[in-house]
Amino acid sequence: MKYYIIAGEASGDLHGSKLIEALKEIDDKAQIRCWGGDLMQKAGGTLVKHYKELAFMGFWEVITHLGTILKNISFCKKDISNFQPDVIIYIDYPGFNLRIAKWAKQQGFKNHFYISPQVWAWKENRVHQMKKDLDALYVILPFEKDFFETKHQLKVEFVGHPLLDTLLNKEKSTHFLKENQISEEKNIILLLPGSRKQEIKKMLPIFLEVAPLFPQFEFILAGAPGISQEWYHKFLKGENIKLIQNKTHELLLHARAALVSSGTATLETGLLDVPQVVCYRSSFITYQIAKRLVKLKFISLINLIMDREVVKELIQDAFNVKEVVRQLKYVLSESGQKKLKGDYQELRKVLGTGGASKKTAQLIFEALQ
């Protein structure tokens, strides 16, 4: 069968790659065309467009890149029409994907959505359109099933979180430390300022101001896929901070703590048992609009899943050097480490037993028979 998969960011590329592998196990004649990244291509998808050409975030940033976004939408529709897939599989990235889904439904294509848009956070009115346009919706967070089925009478499948499959069997490697010239004696604090240039510009300068205040630790910057070393070095300016790209999970296995930009990375950090401080700052306009529209108590996935403050969130003005230092000292303390690791254990229980990619692939394949 012919599958067309659309993912628009680094986390979607990871989950999309696992889904491609699972689809190919079930359907040995699978033809897969995709929007995503290197991982989806490596898994066997024919890459149409890389997510680094698509990753615009924030209200103001989207407005300023509207011409590019509209061109991408037009190109995507033509490419789908030429390929004539049996099913289109959307992975998160709702602003783009829900537009394509609406058009695709009118053209008679099957629409399956894996990793739901976070309509429980904002734009809840999108659920009405999703009910019209989607043939199936696969959710990965426990509370989403109740939100869609009880509140909105939209049938969904809870498949568990795909990060469980990616992360829970990973093990530390001294070879990795030697290969990257990292001292086994020094404790690592990992910097995760995000996966898009817009957010890294806001986050990284503060992180770099914090680093010299903890001389007993080795600060390492985890470079995001699709962003060049040269671009990062504009910020590092010869500072004694090591940059290691595309090895976030391996680095987390060796980290004593992490400073993390809100997003999927907060959950990755928690599942790998690393105490963290969650930080976030956007442009003034984006923040003011979001503050009025978003209906959530928390911004980090861990706190949302647990419905309480497990990890500290420093947002906008609260994200400053003084407060980051204070919170980092806490998560490095014995009591802070103990509390967070206990909460992480509870988080893993809530998220289920794993196998999300295989369950989703099986459900998609069966639906097409």
Describe the structure.
The protein folds into 2 domains: 176 residues, Rossmann fold (3-Layer(aba) Sandwich); 185 residues, Rossmann fold, CATH 3.40.50. It is 51% helix and 18% strand. The model has no long low-confidence stretch (mean pLDDT 90). It has 369 residues and is of the alpha/beta class.
Outline:
The chain has 369 residues and is an alpha/beta fold.
Strand fraction equals: 15-25%
Decide which structural class fits the backbone.
alpha/beta
The shape, in one word, is globular
Radius of gyration using CA atoms only: 20 Å
The CATH topology annotation of the largest domain reads as Rossmann fold
Key terms:
single chain, 369 residues, alpha/beta, Rossmann fold, 2 domains, seven-stranded parallel sheet, six-stranded parallel sheet, 13 strands, 51% helix
Write the topology of this structure.
Layout lengths: L1 E6 L2 H17 L4 E6 L1 H6 L2 E5 L8 H6 L1 H18 L3 E5 L2 H14 L3 E4 L11 H8 L2 E4 L2 H11 L4 E2 L4 H5 L6 H6 L7 E6 L4 H14 L6 E7 L5 H8 L5 E4 L2 H7 E7 L2 H8 L4 E5 L3 H10 L7 H6 L5 E4 L5 H12 L1 H18 L4 H13 L1
